[in-house]
Structure formats: structure tokens, C-alpha cells
Amino acid sequence: MSVFPENFLWGGAIAANQADGAYLEGGKGLTSVDLLPTGKKRFPIMLGQVDSLVPDPNEFYPSHEAIDFYHHYKEDIALFAEMGFKSLRVSIAWARIFPNGNDETPNEDGLQFYDDLFDELRKHSIEPVVTMAHFDVPVHLIEQYGSWRSRELVGFFETYAKTLFTRYKDKVKYWMTFNEINMLLHLPFVGAGLVFKEGDNKKQIQYQAAHHQLVASALAVKACHEISPDAKIGCMLAAGATYPYTCNPDDIFDAMEKDRESFFFIDVQSRGEYPGYAKRFFRDHGLSIEMNDQDEALLKNNTVDYIGFSYYASRATSTDPEVNSTTAGNVFGSIENPYLQKSDWGWTIDPKGFRITANQLYDRYQKPLFVVENGLGAIDTVNEQGEIEDHYRIDYLAKHIEQMGEAIQDGVEIIGYTSWGPIDIVSASTGEMKKRYGFIYVDKDNEGHGSLKRTRKKSFYWYKDVIAANGIYGTHKLV
């Protein structure tokens, strides 16, 4: 017998900025991610070191074409349906609806594209799970307002949210406000379109921007509940338990603080108020967060319905400088964990950490969880027969799905699992295509060359069997 609920939402997850392409087609405006090139300039820009808000013709920007999901979505959705998907997580590009972010009227071509996308999903009985802001702030809002450092964006986002809920209330039942909202603290240009100048108080700017996003999220929750009362709207964080390196109380306290750095956002969105430890952090660091008189009531009265989260790896921390060697790859700082293997990009592989993280979140919030990202980035090769034998991906996902099943038996309520990403897409961190996550191979390389042909991998057929069996796990079933 499967431990997964009968209506469990098996599926996959992609993002507009990593899949769609067509970056200025159909009236879409320029977004922050459209300014992220490949190569050595990419990471400094992600951190907010931005010299220009205009694409450089001498650079290659992978988001501009990505895998051209914008023109291939029917073909791709048919492949997802062949696997038996119950859900597909997608994001809406804000600048496809409001090209400048604050236009007086929405772009009808953009609205129609998502109408068509959602209709195609529903034709195949696939439930859309929609993220409203996934790492793509309209560039006009960065130029004119400094992005989320300005309170003005709260009102612009509320208008955007109301437009979406009104248009798609009969087509979308699962929403999320901000993708991996805690990424604002680690990659501020990616998470919030923040650009820093010399002498800026970065912490002050980041936490003020965080407050604006949290208020905007609460307003979106309020609007969703009023306009589409049958829908569910959640928040989303980049999750992963932090382990203390030793039982030294200093290590344990440090691990707790690093977890709280991420939990802070979800504490506000799920519990409706700033936790005491956050208020102390503001005092200790001399931060003064400007709030409107209505903000506290707004946050308190408009909490999310569920917690969405991504899980790729756990983290470890030590207060001993002699053991503080940072792992490569992941934007979250972590020391080497000698008990775990790593991916080609240096991310720890920790299936048991998935179960720990799910329990940690459910114990803390007592709200349904939705696993909206989990997967392995790896280099895939096509053999002489044109096949992709990605047994390593099957092994990774099988072990993580098994641990998700254990978490459900622990009493954790999980409503769905959308693997990242079910088709090869552009890597958010590196901009590469060779860092592949999909069950479906896309013929494109890091330089943008390729036919974009879609090819089923070995994992395609494996995941199809997993969904058909509703996740019944065990080595004989999953590998």
C-alpha cells in the first residue's frame, strides 16, 4: 500500500525565466534575470554588483531563449502528461503581464499566453501550481524605484496579484507568492532586484526590502482569498536543515541561528508576526525597519494556506575556524560534511536530510507542506543509440522520495511533489545547460547552440512508473 494520499500532486516544476525564452516577445518587458550573462560576470551581478541595466551585445544571456518553452509548451506538456503528471509548477513573468511592472493596464498578449498555457494543462488533467514572482523583477522598477527597497513596489505587486487572481480564478487553484523568498539575503539581485552602491548599508536595504515583500505577500493572500476563495495560496523557501558540526553548544546555537535566517520569512508569512529573535537581530545590528501603521494587522490577518519549499541539500556549520572550509556550488555557506557524497557541482546529497527538513517545517508551522523543488543537477551524455542512461538521477530521486514517504508516516502532511526540473532548463545559479535536472533532454549547450529537440531519458520511464504506483517505494520499485 502507498503511504501517499490518493490525490497526491505528483509532477514537476519549471520557472519562466529558466524555460520560456521569448524574452521580449508578445509585449514582455525586460526583467532582472535578462541581465544575467554566463561566465565570470554572472555571480557578481547576482550579488547586486550591477554596472548597467541594459544587455551587453557582447555577452550571452541564457534566459533570452532558454529552452523556448514559450513556443514548445504544447509539446512539452504532452510529454509531462505521458509521464502521468498530476500537477506542473510554473511561474508567471511579471513583465509579461505588466511590461514595466507599473503599467496602467495589463498586456493582453501576456495574459492570453497564460490562458492558453493553463488551458493546455487542464486539457491533460494537470493542475497548474503558479508562482507569481520567480526571480524576475521588471527592470523599469529597478531603474525608477530601486526595486524592492521602495515601498512603491508593494502597491504595484498588489495590482499584479489582483489581475492574476481575477483572470485565472477558474483555472488556477494553487498559488505561491515569492519563490525562495529567503534568497533575498544570499543573492539580492536575483531575489529582489537589489543593486548596491558603494557605502550602502546592505543589511538595512535587504531587510527593508524583505519587509516590503512580506507585506506584498500578505496583500496577495488577502486578494486571493477574496477573489478566488476556493484557491490555496502559499509561501516558498529554499530549505535544508543545518547540522551542527559537533555537540559543542556554540555549534548547536550557530546551526539554530542559520536555520532562523531562512525561517524568519516563513515565520512572518505563516504565523503573521515578526518573531522575537528577528527583532533582537534588528536591534543588535542597528537596523530600523520602516513599517506602516496597518502592516502588523495586515500580516497577522493574512497568513498563507500552505508552505512550499525546495530541498536539494542539507548544510553544516562550525564555530571552529580550523574546520570552516566552505563547499563549492551551493549559495548557502556550509562546511564539508564527511558523511555525505556530493554532486558534480559540490552540493551535498542527503536524502535523510529531506525527511529531517520536512519534519522540521511541519513541527514548526503545522500547515500542509508542498515539495515544489527537488532534483539532481548532473552532466548527461547521449550514447550511440541516442539514449540517456541517467541512473544517478533515478538513484537520487528514489532515495529522496523514499524519505518523503517516511516523513508522511511521521505524520507530516505533504500535498504534492514537483521535481526540479522535469525537462532540462537553464541553471539559475550558473546559467549553464550542461547542469541538467530533467527527465527530458533538450538539445542545447552552454553557448546556446542546438536544435532544442526533446528526448526522453531513462528517468522519464522510471518517474512514469513511480506516479502510476503513487510513489510506492523500495529498491525493487524505484530503481
Features of this protein?
globular; 8-stranded parallel β-barrel; two-stranded parallel sheet; 479 residues; 16 helices; alpha/beta
Assigned CATH architecture: Alpha-Beta Barrel
The overall strand count is 14
SSE pattern: EHHHEHHEHHEHHEEHHHEEEEHEHEEEHH
CATH topology: TIM Barrel
Number of domains: 1
Q: What's the arrangement of strands in the largest beta sheet?
A: 1-2-3-4-5-7-11-12
- Uncertain runs are none
Strand content: 5-15%
Main sheet attributes: strand count, strand direction, barrel closure: 8 strands, parallel, barrel
Shape: globular
Helix content: 25-40%
For the record, give the distance between the C-alpha atoms at the N and C termini, rounded to a whole number: 18 Å
Family: Belongs to the glycosyl hydrolase 1 family.
Active site: 373
Protein name: 6-phospho-beta-glucosidase
Keywords: Glycosidase, Hydrolase
Structure write-up:
Keywords: Glycosidase, Hydrolase. This is 6-phospho-beta-glucosidase. Helices cover about 40% and strands about 15% of the residues. With about 475 residues, it is an alpha/beta fold. It has a single domain, classed as TIM Barrel (Alpha-Beta Barrel). The strands form four sheets. The protein has an eight-stranded parallel barrel, surrounded by four helices. Helix 7 (about 150-170) runs parallel beside helix 9 (about 200-225) and helix 9 packs across helix 12. The longest helix is centred in the middle third of the chain and has 26 residues, at about 200-225. It is globular.
